[in-house]
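User: My advisor, Dr. K., asked me to get a structural model of this assembly before our group meeting. I'm new to this, so sorry if the format is off. These are the inputs:
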Amino acid sequence: LIKKPLLQELLRIVGPENVLSTPEAMAYASKDMATSVLPKMPALVLLVHTREELIRATKACLEHGQALVVRGAGTGKSGGATPDADCVVIDISKLNRIIAIHKAGLLAELEPGVILSDFQRAVDQEGLFYPPDPASVAMCTIGGNVAENAGGPSTFKYGSTREYLLGGQAILGTGEVVDFGKRCMKGVAGYDLASLLCGSEGTLAVFCSFIVRLLPKPKDRALALFLFAKDEDALDATQAVFAGGFRPRSMEYIDSTCLEALLALGFKAIGEEACSALMIECDASVIGAAVLELKSIAHLMEQWPKSRAILAEGAARDEIFTMRKSLSEACSKYLGHKLSEDIAVPLSAIAEFGRWFKAQEQKGLKCGLFGHAGDGNLHVQIMFKSAAHQSAAEALRHQVLLQVLKKQGTLSAEHGIGLQKKDYLALEQSKALIELQKRIKSAFDPHGLLNPGKIFAS
Amino acid sequence: LIKKPLLQELLRIVGPENVLSTPEAMAYASKDMATSVLPKMPALVLLVHTREELIRATKACLEHGQALVVRGAGTGKSGGATPDADCVVIDISKLNRIIAIHKAGLLAELEPGVILSDFQRAVDQEGLFYPPDPASVAMCTIGGNVAENAGGPSTFKYGSTREYLLGGQAILGTGEVVDFGKRCMKGVAGYDLASLLCGSEGTLAVFCSFIVRLLPKPKDRALALFLFAKDEDALDATQAVFAGGFRPRSMEYIDSTCLEALLALGFKAIGEEACSALMIECDASVIGAAVLELKSIAHLMEQWPKSRAILAEGAARDEIFTMRKSLSEACSKYLGHKLSEDIAVPLSAIAEFGRWFKAQEQKGLKCGLFGHAGDGNLHVQIMFKSAAHQSAAEALRHQVLLQVLKKQGTLSAEHGIGLQKKDYLALEQSKALIELQKRIKSAFDPHGLLNPGKIFAS
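Assistant: The format is fine. Below is the predicted structure of the whole assembly, which you can bring to the meeting.
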């Protein structure tokens, strides 16, 4: 429970209407979208509206030795926003100003609570482009994107959030407010703290604002859905695209089970036959070049005689994008329950991993795979009808993580370790490496008050 | 001077023929290619031939409290390889095996002493592509590239070394040998140590090996040299390329003074008229798309009525590339002496900075600018005829750095801080930020034995 002098100070800083402890507010702040993390009640929820309030409230907590978690939209999938200890949750969703878009400088400054799709829209109106595009784009905040180094389909060509974070302002665990990074496209003055902070899951600093890099908007885009007779054909086809020397904007895999789940949710674009799909989008900075690349890829796909291509334009295009973004939901609804995992394997191991996973189907458990095949990043879906299968599903989830490590893969490609996988980290990384990271954590946060309990097992 | 028990151990580890203290070896190891750093003699030079030797020799030094600097080819430009304290220099240039190129996995494993152009050639033979391309490509080592986060012309489209470093093996200042990073294209398990280590200038760890990401090789490339009537026109033209939505592979600026220096060195490709140039290369994964983009850019350039374009093919193409790589040398030879700086400014400030710098020309000092205009990264050249102008040149160099910071630029875009600019770091970054970085340094190297004296002022 929170100390009285701190509570009084917080009431003064943000006003009583923004210090929340109603059951609804506490329940909302107790969890994110992780499927294997139990909710935990915070000590209190604070709603901040300005950077000054954020800085003052954070400093007050730190001075009183009060642990805290910063929360954006709560769309994270590893429990990163779940208040593990007796934490104050600072909700930054109202700290959502786009401070400036500098068109000639190809950069923008913005606050952490900006919703990604709002930002993308504003940037697009300037003829510019901000590539990161997680499926939660319409809800998630830039702050959460930076905390988790969010990716998405276009990461394949354009990289994750880290490639776009130039710098910003942050509060360290010491209470110091620092400007980090740069306003230039390149820079090697000192250590790359922007890259280190990106993906640090709220454990190193509290973000006040960001400077992000923008790109000129590609003038040409072309999308196709390639349908295959077997799951394996689609996975093999990803290798052919690499070998063919292509660099599409995205290359998304949807296996037969996930396609069934989409059909069940009412998406008809792909027709009734259950088969696997690759959704490939090309883009280019000159008109005509994207279609040129996509047609070359389509030509390549003809080596799978039973494959067929749907070149998607207009409404069909929109439906396919909506379909892709609905995959996680479709798998949740398909049998009523699911566990999901976010893993990556080396590119050469994708097909093999896919085969292994599908062979794990058992009574009551459906195994589905979708994700960013171009990056070897698969979102593993374990679906089941009733709570009776929960423990079997958990056991399979455990096996999936072990199998990924066996294939020299990684526990998390883009969702973070958070609470969900911290007990596994020691299976991927050595003790010396984890101890090093804890010393880095101490360099930023000597008293361990920023998002305690995450990433590293206690 | 080195302690006797340590010396004996080192003799045992690498053999007497690889423990060097001849005047030639000591002089070679006393400096790199920085123009404003005085040479300093090392305590001793060790030549290692295997990773095991590197690990044993490094551990022996650390156990005896002996400071050390790792040296690749010594092509750095900030004094990073200069042994500041009484250091042992470990020369890793013979640790130069390409361990494996995994074609299907789009990655390679290699030792730090591999020469960049050797690696590029091997990768190219597999139909793959490793983008970083500093001008020193034919001499520099991958180890040095990682230590400084080397860039080059293609950074504009493809990013610097950091974007390709997936992981590797390193020795911490504690003597622990750790595997860091991943073999996957994406991964967020724990902090991004690969990004942090990249560009850390040898101050955080000693590298034993790297895992780097490769790309499919672009099938199409097209190069043009655009000549302009005035320096400013070329700089304004870079803005037009951004605004036009193009993303060429590289966009290199050469001002009138640097073109004169090239002419003086015997390059005739550009003709006798002194004017400024943009060298723009486009590439694409389908045949025809690169020329398409380059032609669209050429069309854009017609708004500068006195500009002309040389579409470079065959031998002309090779000469232009050689010319670009010879710029630093040409500026050194032009008047016999030079100081150079590597800075970046925000893209919107390039033309303004260029104007300011050219206005600083004074009796005895010629001001030249070339570099990666697409990234706002300019290599500032201060050329002079005799040592009598050295102090005026140093004074101008000082003014350049102050002007860069005034324009919200950075002290170093790709060459590092090293010894050359450590006294300036506090002008770019706050005390709190620098202290944080020193704590990070301690997390890796608690006794301060790895490349001491670099980056941070004492």
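One thing worth pointing out at the meeting: Chain B touches chain A through 98 residues (CB under 8 Å).

User: Perfect, thanks a lot.
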